[in-house]
Amino acid sequence: MKKLLLSAAILFGSLGAFAQGGLGYGLRAGVNIPKYSLDNGSTESNTGFFVTGYLDAPVSPYFSIQPGLSLQNKGGKWKPTSSSETKESVMSLDIPVNLVAKLPTGESGNFFVGAGPYVGFGLSGKRKGEVLDGAVKGDRDINFGSDASDDLKRTDFGINFLAGYQLTNGFQINAGYGLGLTNLAPASGDMAKNRVWSVGIGFGL
Asked: What is the tens place of the pLDDT at every residue in 45-93?
């Protein structure tokens, strides 16, 4: 975890040194709609949240590199039987690095679209279950690791996509999609990959 944060700090510092036209920053927050992609389909979606702080390092008048730190609520839910439901809620610290194109619309603001890789680190999680349509309930902490007896692998890697509109005063609306590429299922033969839609608001300078 310390190495992850140190690497992020070095990356942000390097981008600041090479940025043209001044280094900006911003904050985005909103609602996540996550689920897992499985080998035979997908789970149902949860509802969670995200909070992302980012730097904006211009490389030209219309393109920027935006590294960030993002607290992401991920997971999914599924029905093992017709009368039971299992839900996973995972808190993840993600480090995205996006290349963002900005498309000005006169003096009102600009559209932006972007994409880039991310690495995520599972911080904590809960697995909740209901049996007999809620008559029996229980929950426990998720076990992170690579053994077959664990629930999820801790480290995730994937690709971000984002789009939105930012006014000249800095206020923005945004939407995104996280495509997880890592198989998070520790057991051999199983598959679970993150799929996360998001929508939110933010402010950038």
From this structure: 999 999 999 999 999 989 999 999 999 999 999 887 666 788 999 999 9
Give the dihedral sign, CA 6/34/190/147: positive
Q: pTM of the prediction?
A: 0.84
Helix (H) or strand (E) holding 37: strand 24-38
Q: Which helix (H) or strand (E) holds 17?
A: helix 2-18
Q: Is 108 left (phi over 0), alpha (psi -120 to 50) or beta?
A: alpha
- Alpha-carbon distance of 62 to 23, in angstroms, equals 14
pLDDT of 5 higher than 80? no
Residue type, 39: D
Quote helix, strand, coil % in the chain, to nearest 5: 10, 65, 25
Phi first, then psi: give them for residue 151, nearest 5 degrees.
Answer: -90, -45
DSSP 8-state secondary structure symbol assigned to residue 143: P
